[in-house]
Amino acid sequence: MVMALVVQKYGGTSVGDAERIRAVADHVARTREAGNDVVVVVSAMGKFTDDLIRLADDVSPTRPPRELDMLLTAGERISMALVCMALADRGVGSSSFTGSQAGIITDTDHTRAKILEMRPDRIREALDAGLVPVVAGFQGVSTERDITTLGRGGSDVTAVALAAALKADVCEIYTDVTGVFSADPRVVSTARRLSKVSFDEMMEIAATGGRVLMLRSVEFARRHGVPLHVRSSFTWEPGTWIVEEDPTMEEAVVSAVTDDKSEAKVTVGGVPDRPGVAAQLFRELANRGINVDMIVQNTSAKGMTDISFTVSKTDLDAARETCNQVKNEIGAAEVTSDDSIGRVSIIGAGMKSSPGVTALMFETLSENGINIEMISTSSIRISCVVRAERVDDAVRALHTAFGLDAA
Length: 407
Ligand code: ASP
Ligand code: MG
What we know:
Elements: E1 5-10, H1 18-33, E2 37-42, H2 48-59, H3 65-89, E3 94-97, E4 104-106, E5 115-118, H4 121-128, E6 132-136, E7 139-142, E8 147-149, H5 155-165, E9 170-175, E10 196-198, H6 199-207, H7 215-224, E11 228-232, E12 240-243, E13 256-260, E14 263-272, H8 277-287, E15 292-297, E16 304-312, H9 316-330, E17 334-338, E18 341-347, H10 357-367, E19 374-378, E20 381-387, H11 391-401
Parallel strand pairs: 1-2, 1-9, 2-6, 3-6, 4-7, 9-11, 10-12
Antiparallel strand pairs: 4-5, 7-8, 11-12, 13-18, 14-16, 14-17, 15-16, 18-20, 19-20
Helix pairs in contact: 1-3, 2-3, 5-7, 6-7, 8-9, 10-11
The structure holds aspartic acid and magnesium ion.
């Protein structure tokens, strides 16, 4: 028997009701019978976190972040206790732990805290005692000893951080899809499951709309070299491995096409073209905690230029407000915005060594009459902003053009 330490993270749908929780307990029991040690990390049941946020909204427009965190961490506590009960029924000894009990120490930035330190002593002790530790995801305790949350989708981060701290052999992320796909199967019926992707590719996929894994958890896994295995808790079949790039592997030129309709575009027009202007604009945006994504600055004409960038639609109002303030200070002409945009991206580690990828992408969009409004690239990604209503067409056309359709 191969002894391994496996961290298993179960997302909301995987623990969505009593039957799902029993299925999870069965799988944990099976994994143990195969000779492995198991640490379980759970999300809140189904859409429970959303329900709690709605409840808070109904109660009060004022929601102190400390109290919101206290409220939201209740969801994961329910899951962990129920999973332990189901395990007990199967004769598997287990113990539940809140993030705080699991030694997840964070900063004091409520609702989106960052992990500063891991002290999983109690988790190690439970493992040594032959128990399955079941840890509430998405939460920790701050250096001020307050309960914090790690941001939406944060249970992935909990799982990866525990896997890193415990030097686990693998971190399995159980979800309601069978892995990472070459495109969103709801958009592209011929999308294929990828058996293996590199950390770098997965970071680009997560950052450009791939909804399977939270970006921060992939960054964390890459930094600590934790192999991830994304798989289904409904079929239990092997899914997608996310691992260090293997230099002996022949890399696909394009592995995946992603889409993202969650962003809006802001344009500051008639910006004086002199040093310091862009710096001032993006400093103010950063100071307000606004994450800017793609940025395009036009070549200047008559000492004036336009700067466009994309932000999450949820940050659009704040971004517009900030730009309007800066506009007056720097003497720009106008601030406009557009929330009917979408982004389509192609990602592939093999792109680095294959010329013509950009050309094929642009040709494919042009053949389909899809206008490109913004472009950005990394060494393994090309993204284009197009009209929101053409995003799905663009994804399908690119999936075919790059030979990704399943045979
Ligand atoms: N329950 C939290 C959320 O819905 C954390 C998670 O599921 O990872 O965001
Ligand atoms: Mg989730």
